[in-house]
Amino acid sequence: MSEQRKLARLVKRARKGDTEAFGEIYDRYQGEVYAYVLHQVGTPADAEDITAGVFLDVLEKIEGYTWQGAGFAAWLFRITRNDVLDFFRRRGRKSREIALTDEILDLPVRETVEGQAETAADERVLLAAIGKLSEDQQQVVLLKLLANLSNRQVGEVVSKSEGAVKALQHRALITLRKFMEEERKKDQWKQ
After folding, report:
1. Which positions ≥6 away from 114 have C-beta within 8 Å?
2. Rounded-to-integer distance, Cα 76 and Cα 45, Å
3. Measuring CA to CA, how many Å separate 132 from each of 96, 141, 149?
4. Helices (H) and strands (E) in the chain, counts
5. What is d(CA 95, CA 93) in angstroms, rounded to the nearest whole number?
6. Buried/exposed 100-115: b ≥16 CB within 10 Å, e otherwise
7. Residue 24: enclosing H or E segment and its boundaries?
8. Is 117 buried (19+), middle (13-18) or exposed (0-12) by CB count in 10 A?
9. DSSP type of residue 1
10. pTM of the model
11. Cα–Cα distances in Å, from 172 out to 40, 63, 102, 168, 178?
12. What is the DSSP letter of 138?
């Protein structure tokens, strides 16, 4: 049975109130949600609180979930993104910076979009580079990196077309590549 089918069955069971199925959904997505949130807020305590809130929201809303569009992961990460935005609204912060905490650096990073992580010798440099991107570009890169979402799914999360996501991703990759090259040149001068 395909992963998509297994997930569809889990969601169907969870919609009917099956707590074991919801637990499996939680186990499946908790790490990715936490990593995404931590990269957004920078502190483990806040990330834990928001992640818990996300899954409470999912539990409350799953009964009304219908399988359409880009699927469950996009729906889940739209809730996650909205909860992060609500966190910043409550705090009165308009802009976000990716905090380079040890907790973030210790997170397992998936393969980056088109292999950027393979070329990055230092995760701090990569995270600093991501922090230089526009807000939309950061969201696209982080959703692809940490949640492993497709362009269509990312589009649903950030309310953009698949084509717009591809364009944002392309511009982000160009910016990341330039930043990484500049950092490598700086490192060569130091040696």
Report:
1. 173
2. 21
3. 11, 12, 22
4. 10, 0
5. 6
6. ebebbeebebeebbee
7. helix 19-41
8. middle
9. -
10. 0.72
11. 17, 37, 24, 6, 10
12. H
Give the best-scoring range by mean pLDDT among 1-10, 42-51, 129-138.
42-51
Which of 107, 48, 130, 108 has the alpha carbon at shortest distance from 83? 48
Residues 6+ positions from 4 with CB-CB distance below 8 Å? 71
**Digit-coded pLDDT (tens) for 87-131:** 999 888 654 554 444 444 444 444 444 444 444 455 667 777 788
Q: Using CA of residue 97, residue 35, residue 151, residue 141, what is the dihedral sign?
A: positive
Contact present, 34 and 48 (Cβ < 8 Å) = yes
Q: Are 38 and 44 in contact (CB under 8 A)?
A: yes
pLDDT value of residue 93 = 62
Q: Which helix (H) or strand (E) holds 124?
A: helix 123-131
What are the tens digits of pLDDT across the range 24-42? 999 999 999 999 999 888 8
Residues whose CB is less than 8 angstroms from the CB of residue 72 and which lie 6 or more positions away in sequence, other chains included: 7, 8, 11, 65
Residue pointed to by tokens 């392309």: 170
Q: Which CB contacts under 8 angstroms, 24+ apart, belong to 112-116?
A: 112/141, 112/144, 112/145, 113/141, 113/144, 113/145, 113/169, 113/172, 113/173, 114/173, 116/173, 116/176, 116/177, 116/180
